[in-house]
Amino acid sequence: MRRRKTLVSLAIIATMGLSACSAADETSPPSEAAPSMAADPTPEEGHCWTLEDEAIDERAGTKLPLAWSGAEPVDCATDHEIITVKVADIPQGTMESFTPETTMDDVTQTTRDFIQSTCGLALSDALQIDDDSLYATFTLQPHIPAPTAWADGDRWLRCDIMRLPAGMNFAAQKSTAAYPLLPASIADMAAQMKADPREYQLCATTPGGQDPFDSQGRRTEVADCTGEYEWRFVSSIKASDEFPAGNPGIAAIEDRGRVLCEAEAPEGVEWYAYWPLEDEWSETATFSCWLRDGSLAALS
Fold it and tell me: What CA–CA distance (Å, rounded) separates 158 from 36?
């Protein structure tokens, strides 16, 4: 059976909007391309980083601060939540002042444009993989120096792939399932994605068999796509790419969302479409499609 539903908007991440999930049970061995732990604080592409769980949990909602609040890079062969995929110098005058709590929403349009143009395609450029269903449990997070380092003259922008806490993929529910470790390098990640795309997709279970965003996702838990799950995220397309002339109205939005998800679903597989409501139209609004094709689907 196929069905269509309309949802209110749910922001998966409010910074860059790139995301994915790793189901590897162990870290990969160190890659020759991954630099070793640096002695100075200047970041480099390929550096690995970690954050304390408390530092992530204390962040408000899904709006992550720009200022780096963690320690120095760690050995990429050890557990880490972050890999730097690009580093750039911040031009003089681009960003005058900020606090440890400053997010992308708080900076000027000039600064936002610089960060977006620098980091927006950094991950897809590094991985050379266009399948957006592989990015649903990661975010591409920009980081700048801490205010104290900024005052000392540091002016770098890090574009990091960051493993999202499981609860940040939905409105409230903190999943009991932890995401496995990141591999040692972006090259390792690309190889794993190509070998088994399911390892990096987003899957979910929903008690009672409701849709993935029932009650705004509060009852949804992240699941391993290589194991038992109910729903699997398969695609996300920017609304502005589908309608470059602007908001076409709710009827056209719903019709397009239905067509996109029907095209993703094999015959007999239930699908779930998420699209922006007419008053939620923006440059970051998306059409998203889920398939209810997991082994747990038949049990609910």
Answer: 17
Residue range 204-210: mean pLDDT, rounded: 76
Which tokens go with 144? Answer: 């700048």
CB 154 within 8 A of CB 143: no
- Pairwise CA distance, residues 185 & 249, whole Å: 43
∠83-203-189 over CA atoms, to 5°?
25
Structure tokens at 41: 């604080």
Q: Is residue 90 within 8 Å of residue 144, measured between CB atoms?
A: yes
Give the model confidence (pLDDT) of 154-203 as tens digits: 999 999 988 766 555 554 444 445 555 689 999 998 898 888 888 888 88
Chain position carrying tokens 């589908």: 242
| HEC profile of the chain | CCCCCCCCCCCCCCCCCCCCCCCCCCCCCCCCCCCCCCCCCCCCCCCEECCCHHHHHCCCCCCCCCECCCCCCECCCCCCCEEEEEEEECCCCCCCCCCCCCCHHHCCHHHHHHHHHHHCCHHHHHHCCCCHHHHCCEEEEEEECCHHHHHCCCCEEEEEEEECCHHHHCCCCCCCCCCCCCCCCHHHHHHHHHHCHHHHCCEEECHHHCCCCHHHHCCCEEECCCCCCCEEEEEEEEHHHHCCCCCCCHHHHHHHHHHHHHHHCCCCCCEEEECCCHHHCCCCCEEEEEECCCCCHHHC
Q: What is the pTM of this model?
A: 0.71
Question: In the β-sheet with 203-205, what is the strand arrangement from edge to edge?
Answer: 221-223, 203-205, 231-238, 286-291, 271-274
CA distance 86 to 143: 11
Whole-Å CA distances, 232 to 1, 76, 105, 266 = 16, 29, 30, 13
